[in-house]
């Protein structure tokens, strides 16, 4: 009796991105992470979302390292953010394409609405990207 639940298997990467890019409720986002100790102490001053990748100058949809505020491209481009993590062990990065936060050490998205240390930088990135504060979470 294989009454399998319809999980999101067999989705293309595009679909996967669409799901993860939705405005609220990232699939499987963690509400805690043990790698936040390396976050930059000043995350209210961050590069703008259209900052190119520091290494290959890829123009958009880059990631912001939340430890050193380097801007690097993602896994669908040249994976410079992943390289950066391997070189520096800076685990936590914010996506300038959908403002999600990814922890390379947890290998999971982090919920920036729940995790206190991430909320200010998420809000700041939102303001830089959209020119206004994120809507207050009226569930
Ligand atoms: Zn790059
Ligand atoms: Zn870094
Ligand atoms: Zn983590």
From TrEMBL:
Residues 31-132 form the UBP-type domain. Keywords: Metal-binding, Zinc, Zinc-finger. PANTHER family: HISTONE DEACETYLASE-LIKE PROTEIN (PTHR47665). This is UBP-type domain-containing protein. GO terms for molecular function: zinc ion binding. It holds the Pfam family zf-UBP. It comes from the Eukaryota. InterPro entries: Znf_RING/FYVE/PHD, Znf_UBP.
């Amino acid at each position: 009796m294989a009454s399998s639940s319809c999980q999101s298997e067999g989705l293309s990467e595009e679909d996967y991105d669409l799901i993860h890019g939705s405005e609220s409720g990232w699939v499987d986002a963690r509400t805690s992470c043990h790698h936040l100790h390396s976050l930059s102490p000043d995350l209210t001053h961050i590069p703008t979302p259209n900052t190119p990748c520091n290494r290959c100058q890829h123009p958009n949809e880059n990631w912001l390292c939340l430890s050193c505020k380097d801007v690097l491209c993602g896994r669908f481009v040249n994976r410079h953010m992943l390289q950066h993590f391997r070189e520096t062990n800076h685990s936590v990065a914010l996506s300038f394409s959908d403002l999600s936060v990814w922890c390379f050490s947890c290998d999971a998205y982090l919920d920036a609405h729940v995790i206190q240390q991430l909320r200010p930088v998420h809000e700041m990135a939102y303001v830089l990207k959209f020119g206004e504060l994120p809507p207050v979470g009226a569930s």
